[in-house]
Amino acid sequence: MSQSNGRQPGRGPRGERHRGAVTLRNRAIPTSTADQRLLDSRGRGDWKTRDAWRALRILSEFVEGFDTLADLPPAVSVFGSARAKPDSPECRLAEELGAALARAGYAVITGGGPGVMEAANRGASEAGGLSVGLGIELPFEQGINEWVDLAINFRYFFARKTMFVKYAQAFVVLPGGFGTMDELFEALTLVQTGKVTRFPVVLMGIDYWRGLIDWLRDSMAGEGKIGPTDLELICLTDDVEEAVRHIVEAEAVLSAEQEAIREEAVARGAADQQAAAEAAPEPAPEGPAGGQPGERPAERG
Questions:
Q1: What would the pLDDT profile of 47-70 be if each residue is shown by its tens digit?
Q2: Degrees to nearest 5, angle at CA 125 with 120 and 129
Q3: Full-model pTM
Q4: Which of 208, 202, 230, 252 minimizes the C-alpha distance to 97?
Q5: In 3D, which of 289, 79, 288 has the Cα closest to residue 204?
Q6: How far apart are CA 55 and CA 38, in angstroms?
Q7: Number of other residues whose CB lies within 10 A of the CB of residue 251
């Protein structure tokens, strides 16, 4: 007789997925993601009933993210390939970067997965910094790596992306694939268009990124698709200390600019108040015994 260990045929382990208080295993794990179901235009018949509820679920993800990350210290979002091997150059670089950022007083935010993300989280954690992971529901379960101190799992990419930008003072992008490119160009677009307060974007891995930088300069900027100064939004380096110094200095410059704007606003407000006070008419003098000017006492009887 075969040993089934109490398992029905065809019910081998398919992993585990968590949705808040709900745990899904084996056949209970859906074959599609929440993003896929939201963006699938073929199921329009049920949009009026389902999308209203999806809107509440999306809102709950933003509320959960804002509430959880509101007290986060200054942070840097680090991106890179989930497929990188632990002993690869980019993982070693990411671990060193995570440690250096932690020593500089930054929390490190990653996608919470393996590869470069895990290496950056490990470097930050071992250096005594706060290590944050923002996970995402995928058809293949990655899970949150063990070096994350604070984790949030998202259903929707756009809610997760908001958290990467909102709570970061800088982006550092290491070698990666489509997901890494997506985060890189979204960050550059937000900075270029002024949708976010200017913050530095650092590319690490000169050999990996050189072809892209050449194309941006020769083709994209060369044909006028972007301005020549747009390339200055990117800092390209292999030096961890240079990357961290670039972030610290950029933050100091931005803080000085914002302080100057505040001081100018205060000075302008004070000048406006003084000008208004000087332009106001003086009160007319009162007549004898508190009467009106020129009024005789007998007339007040």
A1: 556 777 788 888 999 999 999 999
A2: 100
A3: 0.74
A4: 202
A5: 79
A6: 10
A7: 16
What would the DSSP string read from start to end of the chain? ----TTPPTT-----EEEETTEEEEGGGS-SS-HHHHHH-GGGGGGHHHHHHHHHHHHHHHHHHHHHHHTT--SEEEEE--TT--TTSHHHHHHHHHHHHHHHTT-EEEE-S-STHHHHHHHHHHHTT--EEEEEE--SS-----TT-SEEEEES-HHHHHHHHHHT-SEEEE-S--HHHHHHHHHHHHHHHTTSS----EEEE-HHHHHHHHHHIIIIIITTTSS-GGGGGGEEEES-HHHHHHHHHHHHHHHHHHHHHHHHHHHHHHHHHHHHHHHHSPPPPPP-GGG--TT--GGGG-
Provide the residue type at 104 as one letter.
A
Residue 246 has pLDDT above 50, yes or no: yes
State the DSSP string of 15-64. -EEEETTEEEEGGGS-SS-HHHHHH-GGGGGGHHHHHHHHHHHHHHHHHH
Q: Which amino acid is at 296?
A: R
Q: Which amino acid is at 264?
A: E
Q: How far apart are CA 152 and CA 143, in angstroms?
A: 11
Closest to 54 (Cα-Cα) out of 163, 159, 144, 134: 159
Please write the tens of the pLDDT for every residue from 101-128: 999 999 999 999 999 999 999 999 999 9
Give the Cα separation of 262 and 255 in Å (integer).
10
Check the CA dihedral 238-134-154-167 and report its sign: negative
User: Strand 234-237 to strand 131-136: parallel, antiparallel, or no bridges (unpaired)?
Assistant: unpaired
